[in-house]
Design goal:
With about 325 residues, the chain is α/β, with parallel strands linked by helices. It has three domains: about 35 residues; about 200 residues, Rossmann fold, CATH 3.40.50; about 45 residues, no CATH class. The protein has seven helices and 14 strands. The longest helix is centred in the middle third of the chain and has 18 residues. The chain is globular, with a radius of gyration of 23 Å. The chain starts with 5 loop residues before the first strand and ends in a 14-residue tail after the last strand.
Length: about 325
């Protein structure tokens, strides 16, 4: 990259707003103490985005001439994931998956990539080596020769590989580890995340390749990076659960192609994530006799009814006023 003048800009970690100086309260989103300092450089005229196409002219089309059928959705071969996505992956979509460290985000996407035998899938990792990913794939017990692993964090190299090989699906693990030469700041900074996500969005829309982004979360449980990242993507998924328990819940907070009220339920086992198609069976004790202090209720998650069992446990108190626990 050609030399350029450095300057200091303050970014809001909540919404991505910019300011020439530090302010205590963001004027855009109202968050307090959310501005962080970044030293960036204005790109020179010689530095252009990799996907810039000066010869491509925009075209206006009648909306009635644009055809789309549900058969164009890509089947992930995962019923729970298909349920949350609205029936499958839309070609050219940008999907963001967030969750706590160790909850199973990488396992979920690698398992999806290995199951989709026949689809050319590129799994780009900036956090693990190819040997570590291969070891995890062996633990899952699924073989797929059409799944390729790329260990790279420079966005320009990734775009060059993808535009040349043209995979069916691209997985980026994670967006916080990528950086572009267009911006002189560290990987994971707000400006880097915004620029990398913008280039990947352009890749998805121009080529029709669905792009999955794995995102880290903050200590408050929000997705790390600018709020603009959630506005840019088509789907925002949250992978929730307790690492001390087996069950995981996949829910959607944004979905341009389906409902946001559906959830997917998984069970973490030694061989990876197992779909729980009947969650009521795992939440009931299956005792036929009527027990005192036990009740079964029904709750709705999307179009799926789930049975829950509530138990009231009591014990004999040794004194006059018993305690509640």
């Amino acid at each position: 990259m050609a030399s350029s003048k450095l300057k200091t800009i303050f970014f809001c970690q909540s919404c991505g707003a910019q300011s020439a100086k530090w302010v205590g309260k963001c004027s855009s989103c109202g968050a307090w103490n959310s501005y962080v300092e970044e030293v960036i450089a204005k790109p020179s005229t010689a530095a252009q985005p990799y996907l810039t196409d000066q010869t491509r002219k925009p075209l206006a089309r009648k909306i009635t001439d644009i055809q789309f059928s549900e058969e164009q959705r890509i089947d992930t071969l995962d019923k729970e994931l298909n349920r949350v996505l609205g029936g499958g992956i839309i070609p050219g979509s940008l999907i963001l998956l967030g969750g706590e460290p160790g909850i199973g985000k990488s396992t979920l996407l690698l398992q999806m990539a290995l199951r989709m035998n026949g689809s050319k899938i590129y799994y780009v990792s900036g956090e693990e080596s190819d040997q570590q990913i291969s070891l995890r794939a062996q633990r899952l017990g699924i073989q797929n020769e059409s799944c390729f692993v790329v260990t790279e964090i420079l966005l320009e190299n990734i775009l060059q590989i993808v535009t040349h090989d043209k995979p069916d699906i691209l997985i980026i693990d994670s967006i916080q580890t990528l950086y572009t030469q267009l911006i002189e700041s560290s990987a994971g900074s707000i400006s880097q995340i915004r620029e990398c996500a913008g280039q990947l969005l352009k890749l998805a829309k121009n080529t029709g390749i669905p792009v999955w982004l794995v995102g880290h979360i903050t200590k408050d449980g929000n997705l790390a990076g600018p709020k603009m990242l959630e506005h840019m993507v088509d789907v925002v998924l949250q992978f929730e659960g307790d690492r001390n328990h087996l069950f995981r819940i996949l829910r959607s907070s944004k979905n341009r192609f389906g409902s946001t009220s559906e959830i997917g339920i998984y069970e973490m086992i030694n061989e990876g994530l197992r779909e729980v198609e009947n969650p009521s069976g795992a939440l009931l004790t299956h005792k036929d006799e009527a027990l005192s202090g036990t009740a079964v209720c029904v709750t709705m998650e999307g179009i799926r009814p789930i049975l829950l069992e509530i138990q009231a446990l009591v014990s004999t108190a040794a004194y006059g006023t018993p305690q509640r626990s």
